[in-house]
Amino acid sequence: MQIVLVHTYHKDHKILSNITTKYYESMGYKVDRVEADFLVNEEATYRNEFINRNPDADYLFHIDSDEVITKEDMLKAAAIIERVQLDVYRVSIIDYISPTEVLKEARIHKPIMAVKRSKTRFTTNRNVKGCTGHELLPINIHHLGYLTKSQCDFKINNYMARYDLHELGNVTNILNKELKTADVPQEISIIIKEYIELVNPHSSSSVEA
Predict the structure, then answer these.
(1) Distance of CA 167 to the CA centre of its chain
(2) pLDDT, greater one: 58 or 179
């Protein structure tokens, strides 16, 4: 299984992409990534490019660079995918609004997380055609895309520029939902701490690694 990471040209996103790439590579996964400008091309274009660039992969995990999965959950997902042999899967996503706070309720990540290379192609974002199954994997994605104000502002401005009212509404909805204290896995805590220190080296993160 290979990992496909897509990140935007925003400086915070590049920093996070470098951290998450090293993280996945440390687990032994091959990581293929690209800097995407969604004002030029649809997300589906980049994801299909990765499918074509990785002809030997049985499965590709399509993960944004601000999305992190623990090693335990990666192994669990791989075992289930190997056994069940569907083409596509969904997962639960935990949105971090601060290093210690997340949305009270996890979202079900509608976009596809794992795609069998030989059969599928993306149509819009992570919606796919020519596939079987949309099983929900019992794992979590830790979404770090709302940790900094500049990230949030970039998302809003980007969706406004693209006239993508659906995604703009999703961002606004997420930022206004009820929060709870996060039960942060240690490896996720380490990533958050490193990221916050690199984005704002003068900040004092409350995350303990």
Answers:
(1) 15
(2) 179
* Residue scoring higher pLDDT (43 or 31): 31
Secondary-structure breakdown of the chain: helix, strand, coil percentages, each rounded to the nearest 5: 40, 30, 35
Domain ranges, ordered by start, for the chain: 2-91+110-145+186-199
Q: At residue 207, does pLDDT exceed 60?
A: no
To the question of pTM greater than 0.70 for the whole model, the response is yes
Instruction: Give just the sign of the alpha carbon dihedral 41, 47, 52, 54.
Output: positive
Highest mean pLDDT among 48-57, 184-193, 200-209: 184-193
> What is the enclosing helix (H) or strand (E) of 169?
helix 165-175
Handedness of CA 68, 167, 12, 39 (dihedral sign): positive
CATH of region 2-91+110-145+186-199: 3.90.550
User: Would you list the DSSP string of 86-151?
Assistant: -SBEEEEEEEEEETTEEESSPEEE-S-SEEETTT-EEEETTEEES----EEEEEEEEE-TTSSHHH
36 neighbors 207 (Cβ within 8 angstroms): no
CB-side neighbour CA atoms (13 Å) of 30: 11
